[in-house]
Design a protein that fits this description.
about 400 residues, binds nicotinamide-adenine-dinucleotide, Rossmann fold, seven-stranded parallel sheet, alpha/beta, single chain, three-stranded mixed sheet
Length: about 400
């Protein structure tokens, strides 16, 4: 068996690679074009945790875990010939597709970034799906991390998959993954629809993993050696809300919550996200619930005020003295939206939650106190609009604030 993992240099991809490789003797082929490193540099940010090159990481994986089944291919998945060659040579039994430009604020900077994000994400996924069909790999299990952001914030509990629609007395089950509110999130709505179509037309088994906001700096495998660390971003464009709040706490800033901050968003720890992806990559086809499955990859919805208060409480254990300040809300939003999201299928997959939110925040702060100097040196990156030559300052910043589920600059 061979597993192909795309986006393997990323925050989620790298720890997923280690977990999959440590659970099988089969080959795990990693692919990335290292674009994330460039985007973060472009916005003047940096990873708080120093990150090694893919070559050094693979060497460390051999030394620390005796993993000889990992290999790395550098390449751009938007190039069809590259993807065709990759699939023809490796003939994967499972593809775990985590490669994407994943930042909503970045996708909203200007039209160029919106075009880039939509082209990059959609073309990569289409190349993989059409490539699987072209090379008769129609039994290959295709697993993609989309996002819970495709659901928007409906008033009803979000089902794990489609919804029932009723019109003129008739009812049917329909997908509703097109409520995204940023140019990035909409790439995942399109991907969800394209995967559905690929399943219908090419008969490819699909797991559409709707990933929530991920928190954490480490998994069991990455914690063993600094060369195995995954990245941790805390700037406006690439830092998810809980991560940026933690970095702000380390730098001595109060945590600011707009209004009541009672609106809830779905979250999951890195540990629990990686576990689900590894299990799916290695799942026996007979154990898959179906051939087109949606998983809501979240353990719980959490309010922004709870995020802030947890950081303040856990921060006390590191003598951080974090205050939580409430400001008048400049956004037009329901500050009490009580998101409810079904996740039974995902919880069945992983068995149990491995790291709750408070433990995740402890893990983050424990890591970040070691990198306080990096954070204070880059603390101006907590704010948007740092590059003068951008065609347009992020005037649609409010849109990013309002709509973005997992990557945003403020109390989300
Ligand atoms: N981190 C979160 O909170 C979160 C939440 C919801 C969904 N997701 C999704 O999970 C996946 C992983 O997210 P992440 O946080 O690890 O992001 P990341 O940017 O750290 O990882 C994505 C990786 O894909 C690579 N990549 C992008 N375009 C590529 C291309 N054309 N060819 C080859 N490689 C390419 C990047 O270089 C990067 O290393 C993404 O699909 C993202 O949309 C993440």
């Amino acid at each position: 068996m061979t597993v192909l993992l795309t986006g393997a240099d990323g925050y989620v991809g790298w720890p997923t690679a280690l977990r999959i490789a440590s659970r099988t003797d089969d080959r795990v082929v990693l692919v990335d074009n290292l674009a994330r490193r460039n985007w973060v540099e472009e916005v003047g940010g940096t990873s708080a945790t120093p990150i090694a090159t893919p070559e050094v990481r693979l060497e460390a994986a051999k030394e620390v875990y005796d993993l000889h089944n990992l290999s790395f291919v550098e390449g751009d998945l938007t190039e069809k010939t590259f993807v065709d060659e990759l699939l023809e040579v490796h003939e994967p039994d499972a593809v775990v597709h985590t490669a994407a430009q994943p930042s909503a604020p970045y996708s909203q900077i200007n039209g160029e970034r919106a075009n880039y994000t939509q082209h990059n994400n959609l073309q990569a996924t289409r190349n993989l799906l059409w490539g699987l069909d072209k090379h008769d790999l129609n039994d290959t299990h295709f697993i993609e991390t989309t996002t819970t952001g495709v659901y928007g914030a409906p008033e009803f509990p979000i089902p794990e998959g489609g919804a029932t629609m009723e019109n003129q007395g008739e009812r049917d089950n329909v997908p509703f993954p097109a409520m995204a509110g940023s140019w990035y999130h909409l790439t995942k709505s399109h991907d969800a629809a394209n995967m559905r179509l690929a399943h219908k037309q090419f008969d490819i088994p699909i797991s559409d993993v709707r990933t929530a906001i991920i928190y954490g700096t480490q998994t069991d495998e990455t914690a063993a050696d600094p060369r195995l660390s995954t990245r941790f971003d805390f700037d406006y464009y690439f830092g998810v809300v809980a991560h940026r709040f933690c970095a702000q706490a380390i730098a001595g800033y109060p945590t600011t919550v707009y209004g009541k901050g009672k609106q809830r968003k779905p979250f999951i720890s890195l540990e629990d996200a990686v576990e689900g992806l590894a299990r799916l990559a290695l799942i026996d086809p007979d154990e898959r619930p179906d051939d087109h499955v949606v998983y809501n990859q979240t353990t719980r919805a959490i309010s922004i005020v709870e995020v802030a208060n947890t950081i303040a409480e856990v921060g006390d254990r590191f003598d951080l003295n974090v205050s939580v300040e409430h400001f008048e809300n400049p956004r037009d939003e329901d500050e009490t939206h009580k998101m409810e999201i079904e996740n039974e299928r995902y919880m069945d997959l992983i068995g149990e939650q491995r790291q709750d939110f408070a433990a995740g925040i402890y893990n983050i702060l424990e890591t970040l106190v070691e990198h306080r100097e990096t954070i204070t040196c880059y603390e101006d990156r907590f704010l948007p609009g740092v590059l003068d030559d951008w065609e347009k300052e992020p005037a649609n910043e409010k849109l990013a604030y309002d709509n973005n589920t997992e990557l945003t600059s403020d109390a989300n």
